[in-house]
Amino acid sequence: MRPMPITRKQATRLIKRLPVNRSVSTAAQKSSRVTRMAKAILKSPSVPAGVDLLKKENNVGANYDTDWARSYPARVARVLLLNGVMKPVVDLLATPSIQGTDRLADVDGPVIFAANHHSHADTPLMMTAIPEPWRNRLFIGAAADYWFTNRVTSPLSALVIGAIPVERTKVSRKAIDQSLELLRDNWSMLIFPEGARSPDGWARPFTSGAAFLSSHSGAPVVPVFIQGTNKVLPKGKNIPRPAHTTVVFGSPMQAAEGEDSKSFAVRIQEAVAALGDESATDWWQARKNAASEKTPTLDGPDAGVWRRSWARSAKVRGPRRSWPRV
Fold first, then answer.
1. How confident is the model at residue 22, as a pLDDT?
2. Which GO terms describe its molecular function (predicted)?
């Protein structure tokens, strides 16, 4: 007897009744229920109409709290990183020539190191060049919009270089108060008054931040001239290359009686320029140039980018030696 043919619909019903398909269907239903439960748990609660949503607190950028980075465990970790990792790398890549540390021999207490700014290599170079005891009790004013942009770079910047967030586009009362509090607590500060790296090696006008903090905390400003870091790590590059660098420390400075922060900032920049002249010539010639107001400025010629870069690469010729020098 021949079997009766079945339709496609009947065949589909028979297949669905098989035990294997039932178990697969049950598992799929359970998985779907679990997914819906997870979404319901993780989904933000609904808010009735007319109720204002609370803004999420932004814990990065200028609002990042760096107090933990000055705890004892964090300081120990930073010293180990500084001496065990950062200094050997800086010595290998930058081969720094450090001058003028004898000018700090009579300084007691915290100071504000104010340096010109060419490269990201300036920070590790300065951290390893600053002598003790200031080196191990140092904080750095770093751009909040660069070093504190997310939850990874923020703690790394605070831990590794001891940075605090500073806003470049406006005056931050929080950053000022924190800096003054740390200076009064015997912490020294490293700051780059230009506010940003130089694109062509020439300096930008110094802002009055270092001058203001010095006037209100009593901590003297130590001008510092840095040269060569734009060859180690130029702006816009991510891979460093070996080059020779120079760091020259100047004598501590403080605001004169009645001198405002802007005028003091100009004097700080002039002191850094004199240190650059000293590095290019010698101490005596730099003093003669300063006395006759012939110190080369840090801001370079008023020309196009290529002309400024060319002028920066030109070799400085020292004066013809004569004896005796008068």
1. 54
2. 1-acylglycerol-3-phosphate O-acyltransferase activity
